[in-house]
Amino acid sequence: MTFNQKFLIFLLALLGAGAASVSSFAQKSPLKVLIVDGQNNHEQWPKITAMMKYYLEDSKKFEVDIQRTRYTWQGDKLVQEYPVKNGPQTEALKQPKMDSAFHPKFSNYDVVICNFGWNAAPWSAEAQKDFEKFMKNGGGLVVIHAANNSFPQWPAYNQMIGLGGWGDRTEKDGPYVYYDQNGKEVRDTQPGKAGSHGAQMEFKITVREPNHPITKGMPANWLHSRDELYDRLRGPAENMQILATAFSPKTNNGTDRNEPMLIALRYGKGRIFHMALGHADYSVECVGFITCLQRGSQWAATGKVDIPIPSDFPTETETRQRKFAQ
Questions:
Q1: How far apart are CA 7 and CA 238, in angstroms?
Q2: Distance between CA 67 and CA 106 in Å, rounded?
Q3: With the C-alpha atoms ordered 197, 236, 272, 126, is the resulting torsion angle positive or negative?
Q4: How far is it, in rounded angstroms, from Cα 276 to Cα 261?
Q5: What is the pTM of this model?
Q6: Among the four 1, 45, 48, 275, which has the fewest Cβ within 10 Å?
Q7: What SS3 class is residue 16?
Q8: DSSP string for 127-138
Q9: Element housing 276 (H / E)
Q10: To the nearest 10°, the Cα dihedral for 268, 106, 109, 210?
């Protein structure tokens, strides 16, 4: 081999290595995450916040803070069992109440995870305005389960989550969105209330967008641990991509439709990952939930994902769990 041939091979190798480094994504430092909570009809919400913090930090990709409203609603015993380090003194109330002092400095974080729920009191106008600015400027948001029930009177929040349930949401808020049994996305404007579910059960998740960074590499179908299967969600559904669905059978008071479970959205320059899963601790222990939480949070913060699909990920016929023992 001549010197020129060797030199050409060397150059090609360098170019290949450079192209690989440009196209690949490797997160270099932990992302800063803020979980917000305090009022949620799902009584396990304080434990679920603690679980999400644990599972995120266990990946070594995130540093997680929690900010809780001074007035809490539901989950009183678990509020005491899972307190917020350096958080405010909380007061458990029989009815939700606005905490005018609740105003996180959103700009200190890469992504916010919302663990509020149905009937949560609204944030102050100032906090809402700051959060909208944070998102428009490129912040990240992750919406967990009943957080799509929250804040029905906050127009920007409804745009961020895309689809919501309960909270007097109806056709005035936007269409029902689902996949029919032929695999076609449907936007249904018929009148009706938003939000329902049957009895808790294990159910199969079907990936609809296998090339999205969050779902890339997942099995086409995987079995999720026992959970509430939300259906009849409706809303503005703007700048929205349904990543995965689950079939809601009429035999379990469902719709016989494939309902959105994992959703990616845009709001301004911001990214939102909306996951309808996560009713109880046994739902959150599902490795599918944990993986979606980690990958969805990373995508919402950066637009990219380098967290791998783990070897213990659920299969089409078998759920997998990681027990929380903190």
A1: 53
A2: 11
A3: negative
A4: 5
A5: 0.92
A6: 1
A7: helix
A8: HHHHHHHHHHTT
A9: none
A10: -40
Four-residue CA torsion sign, 261, 267, 269, 270: negative
Dist CA 106 CA 139 (whole Å): 8
Tokens of 192: 């009706």
| 220 has pLDDT over 50 | yes
User: What is the separation, in whole angstroms, between the first and last Cα of the chain?
Assistant: 62
Q: Could you give the angle at the alpha carbon of 258 between the alpha carbons of 253 and 261, nearest 5°?
A: 95
Q: Which amino acid is at 252?
A: N
pLDDT tens-digit profile of 163-203? Answer: 999 999 999 999 999 999 999 999 999 999 999 999 999 99
Count CB-CB contacts under 10 A for residue 119. 18
- Identify the CA nearest to 144 among candidates 177, 117, 175, 105: 117
Token pair, residue 81, equals: 């069992």
User: CB of 169 within 8 A of CB of 139?
Assistant: no
> Given phi > 0 = left and psi -120 to 50 = alpha, else beta, which region is 98?
beta
